[in-house]
Amino acid sequence: MTSPVHSRPHASERVGPMIAVAAAAAFLATFNETFLNVAFTPIMADFGVTVNTVQWLTTAYLLVAAVFVPVANVLYHRFPTRSLFVSVVAVMVIGSVIGAFAPSFSVLLIGRLLQAIGTGLLTPIGMNITLAVSSREKLGMNMGIMAAMTTLGPSLAIVLSGALLTVAPWTTLMWVFGGLCLIVLIAGALVLRTVAELGRPRLDTLSFLLVAVALIGILYGVTAAFGGSALWAAVPGAIGLLALWAFIARQRRIEHPLLDLRPFSSTPFVLGVVMTMLGLVFVFAMNVVIPLFLQAARDVPPMGASLTLAPGILLTVALGPVAGRLFDRHGGRWSIPLGFLVMAVFVSLVGLAAGQTSLVVFGALYAPAVLATAFVIGPVQTFALSHLDRETSPHGVTVVSTSFQIAGCVGTSLAAGVYGALSAARLESGGSELSSLLLGFRGSVALVVATSVIGIVLAFLAYRSVRRDRADQAGRSDQGDSAVDTAGDTDPGAASAGDSTDLSATSADPGERSAASANITVGMIDPTTVAAIMKSEVFALSADQSVLEALRTFTERGISGAPVLDADGDLVGFLSDGDVMRYLSAAHPSSTSIYSFAIGPEEDLNQAMADLADLDVMRLATQEVVTIDVDASIADAVAALSDAKLKKVPVVDGAGGRMVGIVSRSAINRMAVAGYLRERVPAASAPA
Prior knowledge:
By secondary structure, the protein is mostly helical. The protein has helices at 15-34, 40-47, 51-54, 56-76, 81-100, 105-133, 139-165, 171-191, 205-224, 230-253, 267-297, 302-330, 335-353, 359-372, 377-385, 393-428, 433-490, 510-517, 547-557, 577-587, 594-599, 602-613, 617-620, 634-644, 665-679, 681-685, and strands at residues 5-7, 501-502, 539-542, 561-565, 571-576, 626-629, 648-652, 659-664. The chain has 3 domains: 7-203 and 258-468, MFS general substrate transporter like domains (Growth Hormone, Chain: A), CATH 1.20.1250.20; 204-257; 500-685, Roll (CBS-domain). Helices cover 69% and strands 5% of the residues. The strands form 2 sheets. The chain has a 4-stranded mixed beta sheet. Strand 4 and strand 5 (571-576) form a beta hairpin. Helix 7 packs parallel to helix 11 (267-297). 47% of the residues are buried.
């Protein structure tokens, strides 16, 4: 016999462990991008290959990872989350074992490419898990954790690999990474559960091939720009751009696109993605040129060069979640451009200090620069994704995850290219080796300063676009309100489009209404069941309403929450005024409660209401709705309310599963008090 209390599948009790697994996945994906870089010299010696050959262990890795990122969204919605996660990490383990036993460079490259496939799939899967299980008010903090891990990965990899290579051969790196992957695989198998809405999305093979050619062509062109002739860079770049054009055209034409392009219609999202890439270009560029410069110009051993980066890295990891929490509370209107400004100022000071002798000063000046990335990368990701709805968010994650690989490849290639080109030019003109290397390093610094300045400009443009969108939404909302008022004046009895549905009085089909109410007809009600105390006149929201329309319903009906029904009348969520207040406190941090709007500046209220007018109720509604059968006992209702700590629970018809009413704690309390007064008070007041 099934329990009369139902709950849709959810993972709220495992949010912490699931976020931890997703963060570990993000760390692994970026950690392995630079983990093998320090080992290039011994690999060249073991396999007898040149620098131009060995660099493909990084370049090919980034290219393949970028190609497989768009595939992740298809797999994420096709296979259970746990099985998919375990399978992807298993591919990385297999690649590590192949690389550790590799008898030749070709076999090592194959193992490396298997790891890259895992990286390309793992990054968006981890971000989608985070988005799926994070509450709205904690999204910034959790994305800050993810950003901290993606920043920690490539930076810590240089430090750890440098330490390991001082005591062990380079194959140890492959074993260590394989062991880390195995630990994350086991953790994912234990704590993950399916968080995506599964279906049967199809992988469009031609789209996959086009995006592969596009990314490989463009990124190879950027990589080759400083390492060969202009022709070798221009031809693949042009082919890549043509393939990208064909890919975009196909996505707009086919029914099931590999990448939904709707996120690009949001200006804040596009600007957020570009700012994310600028922050990552900074990290990858400095991670490659600082060790190169310190080892070549200052004769610092690999371990010493790595340790110079360590203080800033550790501080960035520690403050990543803090930056996310600050974004949740106060937004990023000022913190994001300030972060870019700090990056530009302190990395400029690093460039000036590079000609001095003190490594302590060098490292101390670099720490604030890399620390500022914590206030940029995570918050701008959250900013970008928060401007997408539930349907387009997974596609937005795919875009953001692809930008990680592109930014890594571009940042590494541009910084190393500028460093090498300027150094070589100074040497050819008769400059000393030290002055040549110093010029190359400062050229790379100038590159990241320029990207940071661009980031400042984009940050202000992004928030200006948000204000403009809110003003437009407020105008549309005012027009909609006028139309509703006019309709109400014309026909007082007509329900406006924004009104909620009265389950007992405004059903579109009287026959369906009677059928749904057949088992709760007066005279047939069992006084010990939920049907005896439930309220059958329930006002339900429509899934396509805005949050502002829902608040209007709350005000007009004098209620604090309502269930949400889809077009078929099925229960799909529950929205309360508490859900709205939590969102407002996160999206409009100046508000700690509704009273802040009531007594605060009118501009704050207008912005908040315009924001709510553009939000669908399902963006804020709780979707894991606890329900109870109409024939359940009152004791079951008490248990459901107390266990879930709820004020009210929707009542459904056990036969059809359709909602027929709602039962609240106050109804149960009134029943208990009324029963007591009926039985006890008359007896106590009777004459002796």
